[in-house]
Design a protein that fits this description.
Two copies of one chain form a homodimer. Chain A has 14 helices and 17 strands. Chain A is α/β, with parallel strands linked by helices.
Chain lengths: 433, 433
């Protein structure tokens, strides 16, 4: 199978992330794609001294990438509308496949770009344009392809969701926006984020993929979150609703609804529970019902994850010589490694322990000293003298992460104490950090 | 492009759902797949009078499907280990592609099946085996293909999650299990679900796709939820943790952890908030960070959604004559319909209204009568005499779903009342039902 050569246009946040992840995970990616994927040329207005390009040719003219006969896939990461459109159309004209993270360009010029690409039989992939690292375009176009989509709704701007999450504590929009800017979550000019333009770009793209309609960004309705007050947010909560800034697309017989605006959603609905800078999209399909996709909607490597998934898709589609576009387990047979499964004694976890103690002085000290002997640190401990359980005083302990063998040895020792009755309850705990 | 003929083996819950969705959405699916996908043969032990097979040949011998030269894709929905394995190997030997929902068979016999399939250059697809309608296999093998997966953790048994959710209210395991059986969530023999065997099948498959290791179900550790008590569940909550029955796979230098057991997770982590019969899987990748996939893990049409997604994948891979395996917007150009985007006046939504009223008697009656005149029903209303806001008494109303034109007309009329000050606050509300 032939190697796939990638030319990166634009070495900003996402461009740098894409380059770094392609380099760092090169072997793993080759195992998944079934061929080597290598960056063969990079062009950007400015050189970045923090990115180690090595021998890879660099130029400041992005058209050097487009005209390089060795480049198979042009990765457009320069952003903006017109310059990006021209670059992409030029790449297509040269017969290159295109991967882009540019939601604005796709939402506004997508119909023209896709038509040109179809003419030249090249792929244009844009997963990274919507919801960063969440594979939502793939889920809609492929994973949910059996479904008539009834509607989809998304928290597709992390800045806005962060602001609304903080406003639930009674804080004003302006105050939280300023904080978000200080934290780097919000741009100096936050208009695109808080007015909903960014979300409308993404919604337009998702709606077209879900319903099979041409991209019509100019018809999307957009309303921002700037006029929301903590007063209304708390009264919505009192009614059982949470305020989220949603992009909503709904199919109705008369036509499609395509709208971005603050929205009350039932507090118990799964999308109401998505807080902070996270993005999440719910898709309601006639067969599957509601599925939700949650994750980071921005960031250098999160977005790079989607850019590279698209590059791997291109490689699998054009370079794969067999029917099995995707290998059975996601990796080429040669890349399947028989990494051993660890016996349970060797796994690492934190532990919740409940020890049923007789009401004698010193039992806590004995238990703590056993844990300490086995090198087990305590995260928290709960013992209420007043709270009898089955006639005993339970000592409840949450440990730090240790090897399971250590905790089992400590438990055996505890159970042999005369102050302890019966078995120690042990439940594993994970902090997922 | 050539049509793709599907032969369905097994007409139980998922088989019936698959047949019905393929029939109902035939046109839409053809638009997505780029070719017609038709059921050309069905075999099952029993005929189902509630499924309208029409002219499609039916037999009680599943091998009639395998031996039918017109069948391109054999859909294995008979379940179990050995009979299913034999059927699938026979289908592969005949050069048929295979789509299956059988997690047990893949977890236990997958290595052998994939080897046979590779030999014959046919596809074996098994999305429906893991987490029902959630496209988690596609997300791991394709959407997250750029990532070195650090770990994944899933609520992959809906019955278990339902039981644990109910136990948070202080109810006993046995009591909730009985209720789940009465509701049809749990099988008469609940062992597979509550002991974690079902979850271990799914975990084994996800881990192999995430880490590129052979399937090793026999090495997975399994611990059920039967010994959990409401007492420990509530004390875990007091410590800031929720108890979930998780399948966890983690890559460590020494080897892989592969384990299913009750687990404390921080209450603020997104997976802690997944309640009831829903499934959810979190994948932690080195580039993307944590993404989560939530939805129904079982059900006839939810699982059929995944079965058919796999069939469409096969069709796109083997029948597609161009580089664009997946059409740009997910639908063939000929199937793109210019369904109009509705003007905002014509969208339908519920509404939160806040009306700033002077403290005069009768204002509530006037507001209610305006809403009634415009055919707008009230879902709930809040007015606290004692609660002044900006020196006025706010009337807060949540309406039922109406057309936006109606609400705008009603608002204009309210704003012209002498009892109402300034603009009426209007925020849209969605119930997502």
């Amino acid at each position: 199978m032939k190697d796939v050569n990638v030319g990166i246009c634009g070495l900003g946040t996402v461009g740098g992330g894409t380059f770094n992840v392609l380099e760092r995970n090169a072997k793993l990616i080759a195992g998944r794609a079934g061929c080597r994927i290598q960056v063969s040329r990079v062009a950007s207005r400015r050189h970045r001294s923090d990115i180690q390009l090595g021998n890879i040719p660099f130029s400041t003219d992005i058209y050097d990438v487009v005209q390089d006969p060795d480049v198979d896939v042009v990765v457009e990461l320069i952003g903006g509308y017109d310059a990006a459109r021209e670059l992409v159309l030029a790449a297509i004209a040269e017969g290159k496949h295109v991967v882009t993270a540019n939601k604005a360009m796709i939402a506004v010029h997508g119909n023209e770009i896709f038509e040109a690409a179809k003419e030249k039989n090249v792929i244009v992939a844009y997963e990274a344009g919507v919801a960063g690292g969440i594979p939502i375009i793939k889920s809609i176009r492929e994973g949910l392809a059996a479904n008539r989509v009834n509607w989809l709704a998304g928290i597709i701007n992390g800045t806005g969701n962060y602001i609304l999450t903080e406003m639930r504590a009674g804080r004003d929009f302006e105050e939280v926006l300023k904080e978000a800017q200080d934290l780097g979550y919000a741009e100096a000019d936050p208009t695109f984020d808080v007015e909903g333009v960014d979300a409308a770009h993404k919604l337009t793209i998702m709606a077209s993929a879900a319903f099979g309609v041409p991209l019509q960004f100019e018809r999307a309705y957009t309303e921002g979150i700037g006029s929301l007050t903590p007063y209304d947010i708390s009264h919505a909560e009192a009614l059982g609703y949470r305020v989220k800034h949603l992009g909503i697309a709904r199919a109705r017989e008369e036509g499609l609804e395509l709208r971005v605006h603050p929205t009350l959603v039932p507090v118990n609905h799964m999308i109401a529970k998505v807080d902070g800078v996270l993005n999440a999209i719910v898709v309601d399909g006639d067969a599957v019902g509601q599925t939700m996709y949650t994750g980071p909607g921005a960031g250098d490597e999160a977005t790079a994850s989607a850019v590279i998934a698209d590059i791997i898709d291109v490689a699998r589609s054009v370079s794969c010589g067999s029917n099995q576009r995707v290998p059975y387990l996601g990796f080429d047979t040669d890349s399947i490694v028989d990494h051993q499964i660890l016996p349970m004694d060797e796994i690492r976890s934190a532990y919740y322990l409940r020890i049923q103690a007789y009401d004698r002085p010193g039992v806590l000290a004995k238990v703590a000293s056993i844990l300490s002997e086995h090198g087990i640190n305590i995260e928290s401990i709960m013992q209420k003298e007043s709270e009898l359980h089955d006639g005993r005083i339970p000592v409840i302990i949450l440990t730090h992460t240790v090897q399971e063998r250590q905790i089992n040895q400590a438990i055996a020792q505890m159970e042999s104490l005369p102050d302890v009755e019966g078995k120690v309850v042990r439940i594993r705990a994970e902090n997922f950090v």
